[in-house]
Amino acid sequence: MPDEELIDIKFRLYDGSDIGPFRYSSASTVDMLKQRIVSDWPKGKTIVPKAVTEIKLISSGKILENNKTVGQCKIPYGEVPGGVIIMHVVVQPSLAKTKTGNYIFILTNCSICMNSKQNQFMCC
Q: pTM of the prediction?
């Protein structure tokens, strides 16, 4: 049986800081990554997720589904062998939801809007 592939991932937060990198098995689920993010969230941040349900992970512009594995989410053309995958973290506290279902957050000095009904991100 061949060794399971290990993937290095770091998580980019709304202010441009990072959590990680950490090494994950390709069989690890997105939900497991989110649990790690909540438990390792840096102290002193103005926005703090209270639960895994308040986090969205984005890789290559796509929102990752909780039941998908790291191996399924990997984008082969965007990776460098031996490199670290960067996933963006969006925190959506329950109070941040607006009547229209839109969320606004800051991601590395860029304002981005998310239309939750269409699962799309756009500059705003």
A: 0.69
